[in-house]
């Protein structure tokens, strides 16, 4: 789906700006997960097998927990914005994962990640 961009139709009815199309596609195909990006690839929307959107905080948590379990989460730390849910921070803390909060905007998250070399970060964004 959405695999034939011609320079004019990028994310035309698909991609992260149209998660309803991804949701319908995942349910129709019986897929386990669906992933959609925006035109420049800096925004991800995921849906589960039921076509429900997976929250950005949930995606960061899943990635952070996996990498921590593998011993690959830099300083056991995640970078997110102040818009992340309190439950997200409590869940991280329960797993022994620290969090750094930035102002809203991916540039602030990236800046904090680059500063100390953190490998998981993102925005809530939904």
From TrEMBL:
Known cofactor(s): Mg(2+)
GO cellular component: cytosol
InterPro entries reported for this sequence: A-D-PHexomutase_a/b/a-I/II/III (IPR016055), A-D-PHexomutase_a/b/a-II (IPR005845), A-D-PHexomutase_a/b/a-III (IPR005846), Phosphoglucosamine_mutase (IPR050060)
Domain of life: Eukaryota
A GO biological process held by the record: carbohydrate metabolic process
Entry keyword set: Isomerase, Magnesium, Metal-binding, Phosphoprotein
Residue ranges of every copy of the Alpha-D-phosphohexomutase alpha/beta/alpha domain listed in the record: 21-51, 55-124
A Pfam family matched in the record: PGM_PMM_II
An MF annotation (GO) of this entry: phosphoglucosamine mutase activity
PANTHER family listed in its UniProt record: PHOSPHOGLUCOMUTASE (ALPHA-D-GLUCOSE-1,6-BISPHOSPHATE-DEPENDENT) (PTHR42946:SF1), PHOSPHOHEXOSE MUTASE (PTHR42946)
Name of protein: Phosphoglucosamine mutase
Organism this protein belongs to: Colletotrichum gloeosporioides (strain Cg-14) (Anthracnose fungus)
């Amino acid at each position: 789906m959405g695999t034939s961009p011609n320079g004019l139709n990028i994310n035309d009815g698909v991609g992260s700006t149209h998660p309803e199309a991804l949701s319908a596609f995942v349910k129709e195909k019986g897929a386990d997960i669906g992933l959609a990006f925006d035109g420049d690839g800096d925004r991800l929307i995921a849906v589960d097998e039921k076509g429900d959107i997976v929250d950005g905080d949930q995606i960061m948590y899943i990635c952070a927990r996996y990498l921590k379990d593998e011993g690959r989460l830099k300083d056991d730390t995640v970078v997110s914005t102040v818009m992340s849910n309190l439950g997200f921070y409590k869940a991280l803390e329960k797993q022994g994962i620290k969090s750094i909060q930035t102002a809203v905007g991916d540039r602030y998250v990236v800046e904090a990640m680059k500063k100390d070399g953190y490998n998981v970060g993102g925005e809530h964004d939904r």
